[in-house]
Please model this.
Amino acid sequence: MAVAQVNTFDVYKVREDFPILKRTVNGKPLVYFDNAATSQTPKKVINAIVDYYSNYNANIHRGVHTLSQEATDAYEQARFKLQKHFNAAKAHEIIFTSGTTHGINLVANGFAAILKAGDEIIVSALEHHSNIVPWQILCEKTGAILKVIPMNEEGELLMDAYHKLLSNKTKLVFCNHISNALGTINPIEEIITKAHEIGAAVLIDGAQAAPHIQVDVQALDVDFYVVSGHKMCGPTGVGMLYGKESWLHTLPPYQGGGEMIAEVTFEKTTYADLPHKFEAGTPNICGGIAFGYAIDYLHEIGFGNIQQQENELLLYATEQLQKILGLKIYGTSAHKTSVISFNIEGVHPYDIGTIVDKLGVAVRTGHHCAQPIMDFYKIPGTVRASFAFYNTKQEVDVLVDAVKRAKMMLS
Ligand SMILES: *Cc1c(COP(=O)(O)O)cnc(C)c1O
Model:
């Protein structure tokens, strides 16, 4: 007999998993709407960190003693969890990094050995500074030329213009999956397919996508995909670079040191196999293990539930905020995640952020590490509210009231 599917998602029950959500700020219950900057940490992850330092803290891969073996096993287990979650073909295609920024720099550094003067690389207008600056440094080193996919008023990339930028000079395309400043979901499938048609490699910055949607690197056929643990319920200081095996063999190592070598003499050093070639020195062992537990936790919640809850919050908050006279939302694509960037006419975003903080609401203000987007709209910055699955409509109401109050006081 068919059983009707019951939606077991209860946001108030889920909130119990996050100790920090119980605290107050300036005497008011915390309303945490800065999830695009960093997500909050569930007990499962906090406990994994405590367990590591309480019971099996040791350096990995090099020791024969029991603690070292336990730590090594747990760390490699985390790599398997990431492999399975992102559907990489091989575990050694998963490189632990310190975060998205580190992953991008690792790849950009590697391409310094591959690019020649006059080669072209393509970036999108919607990028975070960490997916712009490493490539500018690469261009300075190699004489390669940086081209930019333009955007429209809605905060969407102009795909016709992208097609025109591609040529046999194009060697690499890099773009975020989801914009941190506007929430736009970019058409990365098309970006990847078109780049591959002319033989260019593609790096996707998945820092904002991985917390919200299940990503399949093989289905995307992407060459490199980078994420940060701290934006997906994990700790800070750990992230992942996925790279296709062939590319990881082609790229030279990023840093030299322990763990990344096969043999060292003063005449010549040979490098270790993947993934160790890119993991010089003692890594963030605890962070890697805890990142694995964060992935487990997200699966317990379920990406279907995550998306449904966040979409509801996005629609509701958009509707309520739009009722405020003089409020303008930046980033109005039909394809977006739970990020709302806005301004109120005649009011500086920083002043709104300060007043709503007095009322317990955490939002981000400023350029969100995406100055080119702010330049496009000719604004200094925005107020950004970004929602996670553990946020509620009731919290949205608090935000809307707080913004109304700020508007009254400031204009
Ligand atoms: C946060 C973010 C980054 C940088 O991530 P770090 O964890 O600071 O290295 C890069 N790109 C996007 C789209 C981001 O949201």
